[in-house]
Each structure stands twice: as C-alpha cells, then as structure tokens.
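It is worth pausing here to work through a concrete case rather than discussing structure prediction in the abstract. The textbook approach is simple: state the sequence, then state the predicted structure, then interpret. We follow exactly that order.
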Amino acid sequence: MSGRDALGIFNLIVVAGVLAGISYLAITLQPEEYDRDTLCVVGVTPPHRVVIIDKTDLYSMEQAEAIAGVILNERDRLGVSERLSLFELNENGNLSDTNNFSLCNPGSGEQVNPLYRNPERIQARYEALFAGPLQTALADLVTPKDAPQSPILEALAGLTHEDSFDRSVPGRHIVLVSDMLQNSEIFTVYGRGRGSIEDRLPDPVEVARALEAQHGDGLMGVTLEIRLIPRAGWEEDQAGPLRDYWDLVFRQLGVRAYWSELPGGSGAVG
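Step two, the predicted structure:
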C-alpha cells in the first residue's frame, strides 16, 4: 500500500470519527420531551417537594412575608426537572384544587451549560413558565384566612393518594407551615378544661393506627420539615409537650420530622 493510499484511509477514518461524534452529540444533546401541563420529563417520575400552608388560622403580615420566603427558598433548592407543588390546608383537610401550582423546574439560565444551550433563552422560558406562575400563586397562598377546624394529619395522609406523591415517588419532601394545633375527629389539642395537654391527647400509637386505617401507610418514608407558627398562649405547649407528642405520632407513621420556628412572632391579622 502506497503512502498516498494509507493517508487516504486515515483521512476516511478521521472523517468517520467526526461524523460519529456529531451524530452522538445530536442524539444526546437533543431536548428531552416535556409534559406541557407539568413541565416534567415525559416518562420520568421526578423527586417531589411540596409546601403546605396551614390556612385554618390567621397569621401576621410578618409571618406572611416569612411564608413567601419559605416558598422561594424551596424554589431555589430545586434541581432541574424536580417538582414543586404548593397547597393550602383548608378546614376540610383538602389540599387538591386549592392552588394550581404543581410544576417541574425546567431549569434557569444559571442551571444550563452555556456551551450547548442559550442561557438567556432558557432564563426567559424559566420566567414565563415557572417563576411567573409561582409568583401568581404566592399572592393567594400568603393571604391569611380562618377556619373552625384544622385537620393537619389527615391532609398530610391525603396527599399520598396523589400519583405524584405516592410511595413510588423518590425524594418526597413536605414543608409544612403550621401552628400544629390539630383540631379534627382524629384528635384535638383543644379543651384545656380536661387537664394538661399531656393528659388530654390520645395514645399516639392509636392515632397512627386510626390514620392508617383511613388512608393507608403512604406517609412512610416522607421527610417532613415543620416551620412552626407560634400562637399566643400556646408557645409553651408548642415548644414542649405538643412537639414531643407529634414526634411520637410521626415516628409511628414512619415520617422523618424536623422542626424550626417561622419568623414573625405570634401576632395575627384580623
């Protein structure tokens, strides 16, 4: 074989390698298919973070601002294609249909590789499809309301009936903004005439069993971050025996619970 023939074969190999590389990049870098309604990747079950705002009691404007901060912090913690949902807890324990925000993060301009995608175009898409609707949802979520019941536990369990938050979903994380003053048929913290809070609360094992009898064990494996709203006249119970009681209930349900106090004091807006 002459040197010219060898050089020709070498050039063909180089060209074939370049074409193969271009074809590979075209396949691997093409945009994934997204669901138009949720912005989630089609065929993929994403990790899901949920923020629940307990609106069965009033809260102060300072607390309302803090709640908005909690939601925006959850937005900023999302990875690309992870899902964020916002719900408010009403007096019936219902979460569905209280807000329309449940979307996957399509990625902001800062979250894409500028070698392959245009950050400005991606940021504009992010603002239009994700950040903008989130701001709209915030306007209603942080508006104080009031209700005669507070079925916190039932609402948490009910959420696991949703396909997007059942036990098959990875990375299930709930941020619950609440005073944790449960008031429903399953148990109530009220009724101080019946004695101290330790004496009037039912056995946490029985509470967990009653909840699972109604809703199943879907809460098992959930991580729960409680942002506690302090209530005037309840601070001592909230920080001590009530918190201990909730921890016992959550332990029975297989929930990993973490606590922190929501800034803004214990005042309320009438």
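Step three, interpretation. The longest helix spans residues 3-28. The two ends are 94 Å apart (CA to CA).
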